[in-house]
Design a protein that fits this description.
Strand content: 25-35%
Number of strands: 21
CATH topology of the largest domain: Tumour Suppressor Smad4
Number of domains: 3
Shape: elongated
Radius of gyration: 25 Å
CATH class of the largest domain: Mainly Beta
Distance between the termini: 28 Å
Structural class: alpha+beta
Largest sheet: 14 strands, mixed
Length: 466
Amino acid sequence: MTEILQLQVKNEDKTINLSLNNDILSFEMKKKKFKAANKLISIPARNILSVALDETKGSRVMINALIPKDKLKLKLKTYSFEPNDEETAQSWINAVNLAAYKDAKKSKHFKVFINPIGGSGKARKIFNKIVKPIFDAANCTYDVTLTEHPNHAKEIANKLDLKPYDAIVSASGDGIIHEIVNGLLSRPDALEIDIPIGAIPAGTGNALSICLLGNDYGISVPHATLNIIKGVPMKIDICSITQGDERYFAFMSLNYGILADGDISTDNLRWMKDFRFVLGTVQALLENRNYDCELSMKVAEDNIERIKLKYDNAYTSSSVTDIQDKPRTLVNKYGTVNDPDPIKEWTKLNCDGYVFFASKVPWVSRNNLAFPFALPSDGLLDLMIIKRDKLSKTKVINILQAFNDASHVNMKEVNYYKVEGFRLTPKNKENGYISIDGEKAPFKPFQVEVLPKMITILSVDGKYST
C-alpha cells in the first residue's frame, strides 16, 4: 500500500480532496443539474498526461488526462481546480507527475512522419485531430514531415540529425516503419543509434501497434499515442535479408505462398481494409497456384511444446527483452543468398506448400495472431510452414481462420519452428509474390537471418501483448 497523497482544492466554491493512492488519482465532481450525488473520478497514473500549476489562470491546478470513454476508447479531458495553498499544491503536483511518468521521460520531442495517403488518406487528419492535442496536453513537441514518395522516410532517416529528438514517430501503417528501420540501419553510425520508434496506427496494416497494445487497443489512436508518451525504450531484433545483390532489413515478416499473394495482389484494394486479404487469399487458393520451393533453414527448435514452455518462461521473467545477450552487429553470420548453399547442418526441404511465413512479431494484423510465441529479442525467427500433402482447401481455410486465437499451432498440419535464418528459392515458376514487411519484394531467392537488438521501439509495458 502506497502513501495516500491528498491536496485540498476548491471546485465551484466547494472544497474537495485530490487523492493519489496506489497510482490512482481520484476526486469527486459535481454531476449535472438535478442529480444530487457527486461523481467519483478515478484516473490511473498511466493515463495522466500532465499536472501543473497554471499562474496565467489565477493559480489553478490543471490536470490533463486520457479518460476511458467506454471499454476501448479514451477521451482527452482537462480538469481545473483552485488550490487552497500554492506551496503545498506544487509539492503534490511534483509527486503526481513522478507517479505518472516513472521511468519515462516527460515532454519528449518527436520527429513525426505522416504518410498522407496512409489509412485511405486519413493519416494526416488522424494526427491533427487526435494525436496532436494529446501530444500538446503532455507538453510534447514535434517536427512533422509529410512523405511525398516511396522511400521518402527512409531517405530522411538515413541522413537526419537525431540528437534533437527523443523518438521517431510514424503516423501511418507498417510501411513507413519499414522505411524508417531501413533508413536508420543503412547509416554509417547504425550501430551507435538508440533512438526509439513509436507507432501511430493510421494505415491499412498496423501490426507493430497491435503487437504492443493487443488486438483491441492496438488500433486505438489515443492508446497508441499514450504508449509513445509513456513508453520506454525496448530493444527488438531485426531481420537482415539479401536478395540478388541487394540487402535490406525487416522488423516484421517475410512471406511466400497464398498469404503473400493475398496481401500483395490486392494492394489496389486497400479501401476494403482487412477483407482484401481474405479475398486475395481465397482467390489464390481456388486458383490452385503453385508454390514449389527449396527451403534451407538453421533450426533452433521444432518441438511446439518446448517452444511454448520457453515462451511462458520468458513472459514470467522480469524482462522479456533480455533473454539473449548477443552483441549488436550488422555482419551476416551466414553470408548472403549469393554464397554457396548454406552451412551443412541447415535443414533442407523441397516442398510444395500453401504457406511459408516467418515473423519477428506475434500479431501480423488485427485478429491475426499467427506467431503467438514470437519474442522481441530472442535472436530467433518464428517460421510456419503449411504443406500441401493432399490438404483440402477447406482445411486450409480452417487453419487460416484459427489464426484468430492462435489455435492453429496445435494442428498437425502446421509446422512451427524457431530458426536463426533460412533461404527460400521459388521453383518451377518465373513470376509470383514475395512479401517483406507487407511490401512487395522481387520474385527471386532470398536469404534471411536475425540481427539481435538492432532497433529500439517505445513500449509502455516492455513486451509484446499476449
